[in-house]
Design goal:
Two copies of one chain form a homodimer.
Chain A lengths: L4 E4 L4 E4 L7 E6 L10 H19 L3 E6 L14 H9 L3 H18 L15 H13 L3 E4 L2 E4 L1 H6 L12 H7 L16 E6 L8 E2 L4 E4 L1 H13 L3 E7 L3 H16 L4 E7 L2 E3 L2 E2 L10 H6 L11 H9 L7 E3 L1 H23 L10 H16 L4 H9 L1 H10 L9 H18 L10 H23 L3 H13 L3 E5 L2 E5 L1
Parallel strand pairs in A: 3-4, 3-10, 10-11, 12-14
Antiparallel strand pairs in A: 1-2, 5-6, 6-7, 7-9, 8-9, 12-13, 15-16
């Protein structure tokens, strides 16, 4: 088995990855709060974890990947539930809001070709379990009830010698004074750093359930504590999420799990970094933002053209998940070009043939392929793994053009290179060639194009320039580019 | 507003449809139990309700369409939970089974071009509410606890003068002696027709929740009582489902709702009829079954070719939802042909033009279009509505061919006919033309085909038979059929 190393946010260092049960991995990733259209920054987070999931599967692990849907309890700064606010805004029942944006989220995840999680639990599907965890924390003396709401007692937790602030690196004194979470009920708390785990519903709050303390709803942080451990056990392997969730969300998750069952929920905490735009945080009010749809269509003054979702996915892979990713038109254009180059090389590679028993280039090619996997084993370093794969491109093209000898790659190596390239491109990176989309129509187009290029060849042979001009113009009008090579012509839309 | 009549299973008669709140409709349809791949019979049911949903929207109603996912509690004859059995079979956590088959179900619904429901609640998402309804029924004296399980007291219910058996038409005496539901715990029941609303989990039962009576799980019938009324109110407009759910599922739903809040849940009960194959019930053991995938691919000895999902949808529309639908290869072939004819006519219609102020055919066309809607208003009679629409086909084709005069259809009528045809075809029937699939590739193919047909015309003019033969053969190889007409050539894949 490969030697996988991951950067553990909890330890602030890279560690060798060892699963709790050999060959099996439990991974929990905080999913979206479904009260508005998914943000391109979220897409980046989920694409990052998709690649991590895919690579773990590639390494042969049996992975149970759990990613939740937050459909209740995620409050805004003013104390209003995000879903309820969405419901009021659209004059819909909260669950209609949830359904609409959950459908939209799923569609976007499909567009970015992410694999579906093995379990996608919803917060409202686990109210009973959340009530039980609140009770367990109360029973352990680490939470208290005030006016129907229940708060986690951070001071007591610290006094018991438990580490609050370990993940986010916040200092205890700061926490006791600085926390601004749940400002609305600030006066009910014994200490400013305490946080709500059950919230009494105000009379106008739509989403509400009966609990021993009040008719109310669970705190946002609680759902992940409950759902991760319900489906993965009290302690599991990997917990992931965006950097912005480290505090307070993940910090509180740890406290709740330790408070309820006295054990750390996850062994490895993985956090993805932010997506920037033109070097700054995206912000609608500062006119510095773009939606996924605008990126696809090009319908935004911030970009010069539309980009295929796979070009965007390639663009995301060009940064490491722990680095910020700066979205600029120049960078997108470069990624688009790079992605096409990779797709063309793949197509060329698949058409190559060899009948040689040995190959002088074999060792080099083997080294590149193994190198790409080695980079992925180094904390899922997709930019370096991509760079490795790009070392193959000139070799592939030179071989296809006859610039390097036909016997420089052995039949055996070529066969395994095709297989491994495909595994990395398709299974690990999760890419596909947009030119291969469209099923039946594309097949038909392929065959018709063969016919057209054949007629064009005849016309050229017969010096029938009228026909060959007509074909040139007709194909240009159809948006089709023809590339003439030694072994015939290829084309692309 | 149109005069809509629906067949109400509860009254066994067609009734004028009147929603509870003017202009608004609440509709609940029993969704799938997600423990195996979706059956083509289920597809028919959900396509039927999709058309009903679409037509209600077409009529201008604001519809809240709720369709649940059963992910717990649906027991097999041997008393085992279907999801748990699936989990054991695949060696998965039950929620992984649920996720897998729920994803598969959603994908199939997309393939059949059904609209997503406004809310798709899951049974496990409403355990707390189910426990509360069990308690309400106990409090009303209509349920009793035995060894941790809770049973609905049908005898008491009848004694109070409430109608049990009204929907299914079963006689009380039969019910008291004949019911075979939940055989496993038969000895715990006071009367054979009683049914479990909370079931104590056996030690090996995986899915379990804490309730006042035991650690257990809710009865299958209970979830729909809870979820329909939670999202649509104690009494709502339409409850739908397959015929096979009438008893015991829907009968028990009514009893539970009446038992809990003393009111009927739904005003109109709509039931779809069965899908047969070659005149008999589908059965794997009798070698008389086919899966949706096999229908698409043609990979089954029961059919001579594959059918596009839209041809299958068209096939389903050719039967009324309350009639059985017999799936045979001949019927499918005929539907496939009919569907192509409809698609071609649509394409032709959209290309028609008129500059006439009046039209001798206007009244006839208007009558056909209005007639189609009138048929839909008669209990969603899709076969008759389709037949109406087909009356347009010869008119469209004759007009296109110049067989009827250019001034026989007015400009105004043609414009509204195009719009209304499109609304019925796309919005109500939920069809699309498979030839228009494939996005970019299809666009490119369209343009390249124009080029190819242009070159073919040149070749014919120049008596260049080599080239025209080459084009004929090349297009045949690409699976493309060319149809030459008065105004040029059209083609299809």
């Amino acid at each position: 088995m490969h030697n996988l190393e991951v950067y553990n946010s909890l330890k602030r260092s890279k560690e060798q990855f060892k699963p709790i049960a050999e060959g099996k991995i439990g991974m929990y990733v905080c999913g979206p709060t479904v009260y508005s259209d998914v943000h391109i920054g979220n897409c980046r987070t989920f694409v990052s974890f998709d690649v991590i999931y895919r690579f773990l599967l590639y390494l042969g692990y049996k992975v149970r990947y759990v990613r939740n849907i937050t459909d209740v309890g995620h409050l805004l700064d003013d104390g209003e539930d995000r879903i309820s606010k969405g419901a009021r805004k659209h004059n819909l029942e909260p669950m209609e809001v949830v359904q609409r944006y959950m459908n939209g989220f799923h569609k976007m995840m499909d567009i970015f070709n992410t694999k579906k999680p093995d379990i996608e639990p919803r917060a409202t599907g686990h109210i009973l379990e959340q009530i039980e965890m609140v009770q367990a924390i109360i029973d352990n003396g680490l939470a208290y009830e005030k006016n129907g709401s229940v708060y986690f007692n951070t001071k007591k937790y610290l006094e018991e010698g438990k580490a609050y602030g370990e993940l986010s690196g916040r200092k205890i004194d700061d926490l006791l004074s600085m926390t601004r979470d749940d400002l609305k009920n600030q006066d009910e708390k014994d200490h400013p750093s305490d946080f709500a785990i059950w919230i009494k519903a105000s009379p106008d709050h739509i989403m509400r359930w009966n609990a021993p303390w009040s008719v109310g709803f669970p705190g946002w942080h609680l759902e992940c504590s409950v759902m991760s451990t319900k489906y993965l056990g009290e302690t599991f392997d990997i917990h992931g999420g965006g950097n912005d969730l480290k505090f307070p969300h993940h910090e509180n998750e740890i406290a709740q799990n330790v408070g309820a069952c006295n054990c750390q929920p996850a062994r490895y905490w993985l956090h993805t970094n932010m997506l920037l735009m033109n070097g700054r945080k995206m912000s609608k009010s500062e006119d510095n933002s773009i939606t996924p749809q605008e990126l696809f269509s090009g319908d935004s003054k911030h970009i010069s053209q539309g980009y295929h979702p796979m070009a965007l996915r390639f663009f995301m892979l060009q940064s490491h998940y722990r680095s910020t990713l700066d979205l600029t038109d120049d960078a997108l254009k470069a990624a688009d070009k790079g992605f096409k180059r990779l797709c063309d090389a793949r197509k060329t590679l698949m058409s190559l043939e060899s009948s040689s028993a040995n190959g002088s280039k074999d060792q080099e090619i083997r080294g590149i392929l193994d190198g790409a996997i080695a980079e992925m084993c180094d904390d899922f370093n997709t930019p370096k793994a991509l760079a490795k794969i790009f070392e193959l491109v000139p070799i592939i093209n030179s071989y296809a053009d006859g610039k390097i000898a036909a016997d420089s790659i052995s039949q055996e190596l070529l066969a395994s290179a095709k297989k491994e390239f495909e595994a990395i491109y398709t299974d690990v990176f999760g890419l596909y060639d947009p030119q291969e989309e469209g099923g039946g129509s594309h097949d038909a187009l392929d065959k018709v194009m063969r016919l057209v290029l054949d007629i064009r060849q005849d016309a050229r042979t017969n010096k029938d320039w009228d026909t060959s001009d007509k074909i040139r113009d007709g194909l240009a009008a159809a948006g089709i580019t023809v590339k003439d090579g030694k072994d015939g012509s290829s084309w692309s839309v």
